[in-house]
Amino acid sequence: MNNSTTSSAPQVTILIVDDDPGNLGALGRLLRDHYAVLAAPSGERALDITAGTLKPDLILLDVMMPFMDGYQVLARLRESPVTRDTPVIFVTGMDSSEDETKGLKQGAVDYIAKPYTPAIVLARIRTHLELKHARDLLRDQNAYLEAEVARRMADVLLVQDITINALCELAETRDNETGHHIRRTQEYIRILARRLQGQPRYSALLTDKIIDLLVKSAPLHDIGKIGIPDHILLKPDKLTAAEWVVMKTHALLGAEAIKRSLGNADRSVDFLDMAMEIAHFHHEKWDGSGYPDGLRGDAIPVSARLMALADVFDALISRRVYKQAMPAEQARDIIAGERGGHFDPDVAEAFLADFTDFVAVAQQYREPS
After folding, report:
1. How far apart are CA 203 and CA 208, in angstroms?
2. Cis peptide before 66 (omega within 30 of 0)
3. Residue 4: is its pLDDT beyond 60?
4. How far apart are CA 37 and CA 14, in angstroms?
5. CA nearest 189: which of 213, 171, 172?
6. Strands 110-113 vs 88-92: parallel, antiparallel or unpaired
7. pLDDT, tens digit, for every residue of 214-255?
8. 142-155 in b/e burial notation, b at 16+ Cβ within 10 A?
9. Model confidence at 117, in pLDDT bands (50, 70, 90)?
10. Element (H, E) at 120
11. Measured between alpha carbons, how far is residue 263 from residues 143, 266, 269 in Å?
12. Which DSSP letter does residue 38 get?
């Protein structure tokens, strides 16, 4: 900050604001051997300078000036995001404690009374520049740390999503399904949840955060199929009663697998809690005729009610080893007929209201020919 400073170090700039040319000259001569100096003979000119490209690192501001006094200038400086944090030292002939208190309350960092002592002026400027430098370093470090935390969190979430989708695709491919089924059911759930979010009955149950968790958790709904033997899971004919009993265990198998994974964690994980809920209950039916627990009505978690419709619609319009794909309109009519039976009536109504969006998703993520 003096003449011995290396040329690579940025030069510190001080702005002096005073309507007295003698004071401007005296302070300028005192400071120019140590800093780059800007001078403004009025508050208006000082604001013009700070609005320009060359920003001062510290401002020495006179209080008693015509048209716009130092208090008014300081208020304007504090209103601007560019100069809000620039240290301002009042330099004035006023020496009452009331004047000093007023300036400090407005945001001045210090108060130097005239006539000033050069050594004191230099010492106080140096102190406040060092404080500003420390604050800037801390702010930059905090910004870096926040960016690094955000980057690492994004990496963790990406790895998490990749791992989840890999597990889900493993389960789906054993059932002759694909990742397209995963993506379609995710989007179906998003459409249903957004529609229901506007209803008083669901507004608290389907916040933006919960909808994000639903979409993230949905791919794990059939993870339990990994535990079903191939001769049952891939059977091209109708299952026997005994085989159907085994097939239905995939809901509990999936929920138990997720529960065991959570048991290894030292805290709950929201999306896994919801995934366990969906895996367990997505084959329950509104009228109580579903499995594995025969739950009825609102006793079935909302997440599972949404998954039930999304999964059934996609199964109806998709080709399987044991059946051909059904036209979307025919699937719509089947679901409409199951309002209050298989499906929550409100969820079914949301589906019917947004049926064209369902069809658009099915087309966007259709199976390759």
Report:
1. 10
2. no
3. no
4. 5
5. 213
6. parallel
7. 998 898 898 898 889 988 988 888 899 999 999 999 999 999
8. eeeeeeeeeeeeee
9. confident
10. helix 118-174
11. 36, 8, 11
12. E
CA–CA distance, 305 with 300 (Å, rounded to integer): 7
Strand ranges in the chain using DSSP code E only, listed in sequence order: 13-17, 36-40, 58-61, 88-92, 110-113
Distance of CA 57 to the CA centre of its chain: 34
Please say whether the beta carbons of 74 and 52 come within 8 A: no
- Whole-number Å distance between alpha carbons of 111 and 92: 8
Q: What is the DSSP code (8-state) at residue 300?
A: S
Q: Residue 120 burial (CB < 10 Å; 0-12/13-18/19+)?
A: exposed
Structure tokens at 103: 């300036």
Q: CB of 175 within 8 A of CB of 321?
A: no
Per-residue pLDDT band for 107 (boundaries 50, 70, 90) equals: confident
Tell me the longest C-alpha to C-alpha distance in the chain.
Answer: 104
Closest by CA to 46, choosing from 21, 71, 9, 16, is 16
| pLDDT exceeds 50 at position 7 | no
Q: Considering only CA atoms, which of 368, 286, 334, 309 is closest in space to residue 190?
A: 309
Radius of gyration from C-alpha coordinates of the chain? 35
DSSP state of 299: G
* Neighbouring C-beta atoms of residue 329, cutoff 10 Å: 10
Closest by alpha carbon to 112, among 87, 131, 95, 130?
95
Q: Which two tokens stand for residue 79?
A: 């209103």
Instruction: For residue 161, count other CB atoms closer than 10 A to its CB.
Output: 13
Q: What is the pLDDT of residue 96?
A: 59
pTM over 0.90: no
Domains of the chain, earliest start first: 13-144 (3.40.50.2300), 175-364 (1.10.3210.10)
- Rounded distance, CA 128 to CA 133, Å? 8
Cβ–Cβ under 8 Å, residues 15 and 46: yes
